[in-house]
Design a protein that fits this description.
By secondary structure, this protein is of the alpha+beta class. It has a domain of about 110 residues: Glutathione S-transferase Yfyf (Class Pi), Chain A, domain 2 (Up-down Bundle), CATH 1.20.1050.10. The protein is about 55% helix and about 10% strand. A four-stranded mixed sheet has the order 2-1-3-4, with helices on one face. The radius of gyration is 17 Å and the shape is globular. The protein starts with a strand and ends in a 27-residue tail after the last helix.
Length: about 220
């Protein structure tokens, strides 16, 4: 049995949870607030980020390490598929969402709406939110283009790229910041992701004091 220290607002944690559900890894969750991390958890990961993967006295911390460990040690189903070039494209898109989307959208919108509220009790800065919303449009246009070309983001098969993208977008979807009607191809892609069994627990996530958008749990939205 695996213990995953996570938080529902952490896209890296969501990615690990979706991966483990796809690979049918049995795990339990321990929620830890990233803006108020306990000293015990900080000892487990001095970098102070989530998720933290604990099993049989072993500790693996951080997004990249956990992702690689899961893919290397739980090989059914594979989420890094295809030949070397195809796997490189999957990794490129994972990097896109885990770094570029995270820095240009997540930090602006989720940082203002959630982290600032719970860490310091401050209200969001409208200028920062506007910048994040403008950045989100660019990313959604790119996602829509990818979804138009492929059944999934890198081709016919569901892959780690889809996991990474959905982990990030699901948080923005929870907050109601995505106008899916403007991105029909991305909407169709996301509806397929939401319908996967591995995603059902993600759709049950709640953030205390922050209600989910009306279509967050709706598979046919």
């Amino acid at each position: 049995m695996v213990l995953l220290v996570h938080h529902s607002i952490s896209p890296q944690s969501r990615k690990a949870r979706i991966m483990m559900a796809e690979k049918k890894v049995l795990f339990v969750l321990k929620q830890e607030e990233p803006w108020n991390m306990s000293k015990d958890i900080q000892k487990l990961n001095p970098a102070k980020d989530l998720p933290i993967f604990i099993f049989d006295g072993h500790i693996i911390s951080g997004d990249y390490a956990v992702t690689e460990y899961l893919e290397e040690n739980y090989t059914t189903p594979k989420l890094l598929t295809g030949d070397n070039l195809h796997r490189a494209e999957i990794r490129r898109l994972c990097d896109w969402f885990d770094k570029k989307f995270y820095n240009e959208v997540y930090k602006y919108i989720v940082g203002e709406k959630i982290f600032k509220r719970f860490s310091s009790g401050q209200s969001p800065d409208s200028k920062v939110l506007k910048a994040g919303t403008n950045n989100l449009k660019f990313h959604m246009e790119y996602l829509d283009w990818l979804a138009e070309r492929n059944n999934y983001l890198t081709g016919l098969e569901f892959s780690l790229a889809d996991v990474a993208a959905a982990a990030h977008l699901s948080i923005l979807d929870y907050l109601g910041d995505i106008d899916w009607e403007n991105y029909k191809n991305a909407k169709l892609w996301y509806s397929k992701i939401k319908s996967r069994p591995s995603f059902k627990d993600i759709l049950k996530d709640t953030i205390k004091g922050v209600p989910a958008s009306k279509n967050y749990q709706n598979l046919d939205f």
